[in-house]
Amino acid sequence: MQNDQAIKSVVKEKYSEIAEQSAAQNATSCCGATSCCGEDVYHIMADDYTQLEGYHKNADLGLGCGLPTAFAQIKTGDTVIDLGSGAGNDCFIARAAVGEKGKVIGIDFTEKMIAKARENAEQLGFNNVEFRLGDIEHMPVTANKADVVVSNCVLNLVPNKTAVFKEIYRVLKPGGHFSISDIVLDGNLPDKWKEVAELYAGCVSGAIQEKDYLQIIDQTGFTNRTIQKEKDIRIPDDILAQYLTPSEISAYKTGTVKIKSITVFAQKPVDTKAACEPGKGCC
Fold first, then answer.
1. What pTM was computed for the model?
2. 3-class SS of residue 175
3. 268-276, long-range: CB < 8 A, 24+ apart
4. Which of 26, 80, 115, 142 has the smallest count of CB within 10 Å of its CB?
């Protein structure tokens, strides 16, 4: 597997390209950045945002794998941080929930995504939605800032997921919570996929085992963890054919490997001192 910096470079390059495409173009492949999979449009991972209050078509690039803002229990006046905010889709949904008295901060490390999101916010006249350029492993946010953290199909792209969850813990207020949609695995992917940059940038080979993902959350010190939603992700044959031989496709489809989208919720304890006792792993 590539080193962390090489992976980040691949993701940044791909998502810079995606920023200049439409949602329809991005939906035509699992990798997002190319229309590599024929003329049929496959909404492989994305859920439908169009019925949610605050939806803005120009901010929807069709890149998510869930609806975390719909499950995030956001209240009027909250401060919400969106990790990997893209063109601003989840931020604008969150803004509808926090109202004029709340604040939404989107963080993305792709300059073109930040530019697109800021343009969308300006067009909408939102002065309480801010987009910051930064790496979510080292968030440009002070500690104990957010009531809620959301993220949609982003952490699977990050090499050091433990670092991200520690940062989420740091920026949440005591008693705050997150709702995150992400791609996880049940069983081992074909080894070949782990070396394919396109599939890393498209959320597949960057995913880890579900049990390991949930263990990271628990070891960071979060409590009240629950799975709010889950669904299986089925990759169409014409996409599989880009990476696997016919016999490998058959083995994958008849095997026990599952690619899943989960939306997971957890809270930062009100008593953070107790949560950070030796052995808890959050300090």
1. 0.85
2. strand
3. 268/169, 268/172, 268/173, 268/174, 268/175, 268/176, 268/177, 268/221, 268/222, 268/223, 269/174, 269/175, 269/221, 269/222, 269/223, 270/174, 270/175, 271/174, 272/174, 272/221, 275/221, 275/223, 276/221
4. 142
200 close to 157: Cβ distance less than 8 angstroms: yes
Check residue 127 and give its pLDDT.
93
Answer whether 131's CB lies under 8 Å from 121's CB.
Answer: yes
DSSP state of 189: P
Q: Is residue 281 included in any domain, yes or no? A: no
The amino acid occupying position 147 is D
Cα–Cα distance measured from residue 55 to residue 220, given in angstroms and rounded to the nearest whole number: 33
**Tokens 């492949």, residue located:** 29
Q: What is the 3-state secondary structure (H, E, C) of 219-254?
A: HHCCEEEEEEEEEECCCCHHHHCCCCCHHHHHHHHH
* Counted domains in the chain: 1
- Residue ranges of the chain with pLDDT lower than 50? 1, 26-43, 278, 283
Other C-beta atoms lying within 10 Å of the C-beta of residue 263: 24
d(CA 258, CA 199): 15
Classify residue 231: in a domain, yes or no.
Answer: yes
Q: What is the pLDDT of residue 103?
A: 98
Edge to edge, what strands does the sheet with 223-232 contain?
Answer: 129-133, 103-108, 79-83, 146-152, 172-186, 258-267, 223-232
Looking at residue 48, what DSSP letter applies? P
Domain CATH number, residue 165: 3.40.50.150
Is residue 283 situated within a structural domain? no
Q: How much is the pLDDT for 268?
A: 98
Give the H/E segment covering residue 114.
Answer: helix 111-124
Give 57's contacts (C-beta < 8 A, 6+ positions apart).
none
Supply 273's token pair: 């001192």
Q: Indicate the angle between helix axes 210-220 and 161-171, nearest 10 degrees.
A: 40
